[in-house]
Design a protein that fits this description.
The structure is a homodimer of 340-residue chains. The first copy, chain A, is α/β, with parallel strands linked by helices. The first copy, chain A, has 2 domains: 115 residues, NAD(P)-binding Rossmann-like Domain (Rossmann fold, 3-Layer(aba) Sandwich); 196 residues, Rossmann fold. The first copy, chain A, is 34% helix and 18% strand. Chain A is globular, with a radius of gyration of 20 Å. At the A-B interface, helix 7, helix 8, strand 11 and helix 9 of A face helix 7, helix 8, strand 11 and helix 9 of B.
C-alpha cells in the first residue's frame, strides 16, 4: 500500500517578502487551522506581513525543535530568488525538512538538492503525488466518510471540510481531515494533490488517501472542482467514486452566476441539479450516500439577506444550511450525528 | 498549441515470437483497419503467427520506404529481450522510426536510446501523453464530433468508432478517427492515451486531440471507460466534457452482467440510465448533444437472438442499434446524416 508522507511538526512558516496578507494566504491558513503546529514565522525583513507568530531565525527554530520549514508562497517577482535558495540550504543544514506548495519544484534546484542529499533532510513538493498509486478497487472500506462537493471551484470546499473536521473533533468525534490540494496538505501535514494524479489512478489515489478505519471514525475529505466544470469535472468524479462517501456537503457561493476564471459562458448549475447529480454518481460506490448539508459562502450578501436566504434553502432542501464563516457548522454536525 | 506526433507511414509490423493470433492483437488491428499503411510483417522465426502480409527484413523494409517499425506486443516471457533490443537498434540504423505500445518504455533502454540519438530516429511511446497539455477551455470548436461511450470498459468503443469512421469515409463524409488508447493510436498513427494524462489536463487533452475543423468535418472520437466504472469514471467524464460531442454512440456487450475485471460487485448500469447520464453530463459543453445509436457486442448470443434483441432495443430507444461485426454500422450513419 502506498504510504503518504507526513510532514514533521512543528512548523516554521516562511513569509518571504509578502507585503499583503493575501500573498501569504497558505501560511495564514496553517496558522488559523493549526496554531499548535506553528512554532513561529520567518520574515525576510520588517516590511513582510506578520501572522502574529513569534519571529524566529532558522537557527532559533531548529533549536526549539522545529521539524519543517513551510514555503507556501511564491516571491512577489516570480522565479525563486538566490537569497531564498540560501535560506533553504540553511534550513536543511539546521536539520529541518522543507515542504513547498509552489509550482516550481524547489527540490530540483541544484543547491537545495545537494543540501538535501548532504543532510538527509526531506524537500517535500506537496503538489507531487506519491509514486506507485494503484487503480481504484471500489471495494467498501470500514469507517465513515464525508466529502465536500461544489457547484464550482473556489466555493469553500477546503474551508468547509476543515471547519467540519474541527467541530467534530471539538465534540469528541473521531475524525481526520483528508487533504486533496496543496494548501490543505500543508495545513494537515499530509494528503494527495489529486488534480496532479494520472487519470487512471484518480479513484485509487482517493482510496489510498482515505484508508480503512474504525467503524466510528470519520474521514472528512476535501473536495475539488465540480461535476459541472468544463475542465476539471473528471477530477471531481474520480474523487466522488473513490471517496465512497456516506455524507456529502454541497458547497456554493451565493450570488456567483458563472464558473470562476475563464469560463464566463458556463452558468453555475442550479442547486437541486448539483445535488441530484452528485448523489446519483456517488451512489455507484456507496448506495447509502446522503446529503447532510449545504455550506455557503454568503459574503456577497448582507447578514440579513444571508440568513433569510439560508432559511429559504433549508426549507427547500430539508438539510442544514450553514456558512462556516458566518454561522459555523454546528447545525450540520447535529444533523449528521442524528442521521448517519 | 500542443502538437501531436504523427507516425511515419508505411509500417513494418513486428510480430516477435507470438504463436497465438491473440498475442498479436494490436498488429492484427492495424493490418485490419489500415491495410494500406502496412508494408509488411517482421517475424522472429517461422513459428511466429502470420498476418498474411509480406515477410520483410528490416533492410528490405527500409529499402521499400518503410517509415515506422511497430512494436505492439510484449514478448511471451515478459521483459524486453536483448535480441529485440538489437532489432530495434538495426531499425533505427536503417533510418526508420519505432512506435511502441508496451508498458516498458523501450525508448529508455540504453542501447535503443543511444541508437536514436545517433540516427535522429524517433522512438515513440504511444502510452506517454505529449508534454505541455493545457487545461480545458470549454470553448466551442468548429466542426462536428461523435464520441463512443460505454456501459463498461472493453465493450467495443474502439472498434465501433473505427467502423463508424470507415463507413463515413466510404460515403465521402469528411471524417477523422481520433484515438485515445494505445492500440487506437498505433492504428491511426496519432492520438493521446488519455488515461495516462494528469487529471487536471483531461478535458484539455481531448480538446487538443480534436481541434477546430471545417464545419462539415466529423471527428470520430474513441471513448474510454464508463461513467459507472468505480476506477475509471473520471477519465470518461473528462473525455465527455472535452469532446463537446454532437453525437454519442453507446457501446454495450449483451449478456455482460457485471463490470469487467476485478469488479464483480458492480452491476452493469441499465441502458436507459447510461444514456440519460451521458447525455446529461455531455450537455454541459454541448447542449445539442444527442444519442445517435447503440453499438453492441452481441457475440454471446446466436444470430437470431441477437437480431431480435436489437430490434427490441430499437423500439425502446428510438435510435439505430447495430453490432459493427454482425450488421455493420450503415444504419447508424444513415440516422446520423438525417439527424445532425
Amino acid at each position: 500500500m502506498t504510504k503518504l508522507t507526513e510532514l514533521r511538526k512543528p512548523y516554521l512558516l516562511f513569509l518571504g517578502d509578502a507585503i499583503k496578507a493575501t500573498d501569504a494566504k497558505t501560511a495564514a491558513g496553517i496558522a488559523y487551522w493549526r496554531p499548535d503546529d506553528c512554532l513561529g514565522q520567518f520574515r525576510i525583513n520588517e516590511n513582510t506581513v506578520s501572522l502574529d507568530l513569534a519571529d524566529m531565525s532558522v537557527k532559533e527554530a531548529a533549536a526549539a525543535g522545529c521539524g519543517t520549514f513551510i514555503v507556501g508562497l511564491a516571491p512577489v517577482g516570480g522565479g525563486f530568488p538566490e537569497s531564498w535558495v540560501s535560506i533553504c540550504v540553511e534550513v536543511l543544514e539546521a536539520g529541518m525538512d522543507i515542504a513547498s506548495g509552489l509550482h516550481t519544484r524547489i527540490g530540483e534546484i541544484p543547491d537545495i538538492a545537494a543540501a538535501a542529499e548532504r543532510t538527509g533532510g526531506l524537500v517535500v513538493d506537496v503538489r507531487t503525488p506519491p509514486e506507485g498509486l494503484p487503480c481504484g478497487t471500489g471495494r467498501k472500506r470500514r469507517g465513515k466518510r464525508l466529502l465536500s462537493v461544489g457547484t464550482d471551484c473556489c466555493v469553500g470546499k477546503m474551508y468547509s471540510t476543515l471547519a467540519i473536521d474541527a467541530e467534530m473533533r471539538r465534540r469528541g468525534i473521531n475524525s481526520t481531515f483528508r487533504a486533496t490540494g496543496q494548501t490543505g496538505i500543508l495545513i494537515q501535514g499530509s494528503g494527495i494533490a489529486v488534480d496532479a494524479v494520472v487519470s487512471d489512478f484518480l479513484s485509487g489515489a482517493t482510496e489510498v488517501l482515505s484508508p480503512e478505519n474504525t467503524d466510528d471514525h470519520w474521514d472528512v475529505i476535501e473536495g475539488q472542482g465540480s461535476l459541472f466544470h468544463p475542465a476539471y469535472a473528471g477530477v471531481s468524479l474520480g474523487l466522488l467514486h473513490g471517496a465512497q462517501a456516506d455524507a456529502l456537503v454541497l458547497c456554493h457561493e451565493l450570488g456567483r452566476l458563472s464558473v470562476d476564471g475563464d469560463y464566463a459562458d458556463f452558468a453555475i448549475p442550479p442547486l437541486d441539479e448539483a445535488i441530484t447529480m452528485n448523489l446519483s454518481l456517488a451512489s455507484r460506490t456507496n448506495k447509502d450516500v446522503k446529503l447532510v448539508g449545504l455550506s455557503l459562502n454568503s459574503s456577497n450578501l448582507s447578514e440579513d439577506e444571508a440568513l433569510i436566504t439560508m432559511a429559504e434553502l433549508e426549507d427547500i432542501h430539508k438539510v442544514p444550511v450553514v456558512d462556516p464563516v458566518r454561522t459555523g457548522v454546528a447545525k450540520l454536525i447535529d444533523f449528521l450525528e442524528k442521521n448517519t
